[in-house]
């Protein structure tokens, strides 16, 4: 997002080329890979960045990990001055992939420091709208510490929206991941709206690009694009139509108390070599967002299952009315002619990618967020794995050592049953 606002990775404002100068900014600042941008389209950076008196920019973010080695590695490799040093929060030891340790002992140690840091950050904001949280459900930090933290934030900031971009563990991960997912669902407040993705689906989606690299750069770039799209309408109001705020997203993607999980899809996944020969306009992007390969969560028949609520975010030189018509027509066809809730946002701000990711640097893109009834399948697998582990009492002693009781595990099982029953009820209602 710093690239979109013409901010360098060290937090300084990059020089803007003249209107008649079409040379990319990367030539003036070679170490920063960035496309052409002008002051007229720099947008409103204040929701994401804070500007100091000396013209330095810092991200409005707090990076949390109890493991000091993880934070240290991030600071060595990626922090060039865009983050405040006080916003890196760590502890003495990791959570050891245990929800119980993250929710109990680690949270009790780190919660005061985290809440104080967030309080100071919010005092520097004018009319904050909410929080965007990026976490993983497989580990102890992402499941346990996140649940404890968001429950606390819900008490102090009950009017602020909580949107989670959550990495869901694959069904093959059956060590302690089912415990962590079930306990997170049980202990979390029902106010948070959660958008699920998983690593395997991301790698499958990147297959058309014929990636030769084994790293996670391309995967992380896609996640960054998804998070950027959540606030694109707020940050670039002047060049966007059909503005969608965080409150709109929560209202659309959180239809009932328990059905608060939604899925992502992204289009196009194509390399630089083939992008110039393809035509990606409103119709093509809409159809591509509903194909199986573009879904960022591994869930059978998700592209054919009705949606309770859908949000389409387009970026590039596209027409708002054409995009809305294409999205509405396709969703009516998918839902058997029934009307469904759909919000459309079109921003003229192009999408930027780093050169090493083998993706087009700028162009027309689309992102779909939907509360899909097919997500029942992943929770059904989680429930089956959870009950199997619970019957064998596998790894339970690690959780019991952190003061978790059998009531917690029974409550998590009951909460999963309620969630699955609600999915079944909505499926029957849609068929009628």
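Sequence proposed for the structure above (432 residues):
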């Amino acid at each position: 997002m710093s690239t979109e606002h013409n901010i360098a990775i060290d937090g300084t404002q990059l020089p803007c080329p003249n209107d008649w100068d079409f040379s990319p900014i990367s030539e003036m600042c070679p170490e920063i890979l960035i496309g052409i941008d002008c002051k007229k389209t720099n947008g409103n950076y204040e929701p994401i960045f804070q500007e100091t008196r000396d013209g330095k920019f810092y991200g409005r973010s707090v990076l949390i990990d109890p493991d000091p080695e993880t934070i240290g590695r991030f600071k060595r490799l990626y922090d060039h001055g865009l983050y405040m040093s006080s916003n890196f929060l760590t502890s003495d030891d990791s959570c050891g992939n245990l929800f119980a340790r993250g929710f109990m002992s680690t949270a009790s140690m780190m919660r005061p420091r985290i809440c104080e840091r967030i309080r100071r950050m919010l005092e520097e904001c004018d009319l904050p709208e909410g929080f965007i949280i990026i976490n993983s459900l497989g580990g102890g930090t992402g499941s346990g510490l996140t649940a404890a933290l968001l429950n606390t934030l819900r008490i102090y900031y009950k009017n602020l929206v909580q949107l989670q971009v959550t990495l869901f563990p694959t069904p093959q991960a059956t060590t302690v991941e089912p415990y962590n997912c079930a306990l997170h669902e049980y202990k979390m407040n029902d106010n948070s709206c959660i958008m699920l993705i998983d690593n395997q689906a991301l790698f499958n989606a990147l297959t058309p690009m014929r990636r030769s690299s084994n790293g996670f750069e391309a995967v992380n770039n896609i996640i960054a694009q998804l998070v950027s799209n959540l606030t694109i309408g707020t940050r670039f109001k002047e060049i966007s139509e059909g503005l969608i705020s965080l409150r709109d997203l929560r209202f659309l993607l959180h239809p009932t108390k328990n059905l608060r999980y939604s899925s992502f899809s992204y289009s196009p996944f194509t390399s630089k070599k083939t992008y110039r020969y393809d035509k990606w306009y409103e119709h093509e992007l809409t159809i591509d967002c509903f194909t199986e390969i573009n879904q960022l969560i591994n869930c059978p028949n998700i592209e054919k299952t009705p949606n309770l609520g859908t949000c389409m975010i387009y970026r590039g030189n596209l027409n708002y009315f054409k995009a809305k018509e294409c999205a509405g027509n396709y969703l009516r066809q998918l839902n058997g002619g029934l009307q469904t809730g759909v919000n459309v946002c079109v921003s003229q701000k192009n999408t930027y990618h780093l050169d090493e990711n083998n993706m087009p640097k700028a162009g027309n893109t689309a992102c779909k967020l939907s509360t899909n009834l097919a997500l029942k399948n992943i929770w059904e697998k989680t429930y089956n794995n959870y009950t199997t582990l619970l019957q064998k009492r596998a790894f339970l002693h690690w959780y019991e050592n952190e003061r978790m009781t059998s009531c917690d595990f029974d409550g998590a099982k009951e909460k999963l049953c309620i969630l699955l029953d609600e999915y079944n009820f909505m499926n029957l209602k849609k068929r009628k």
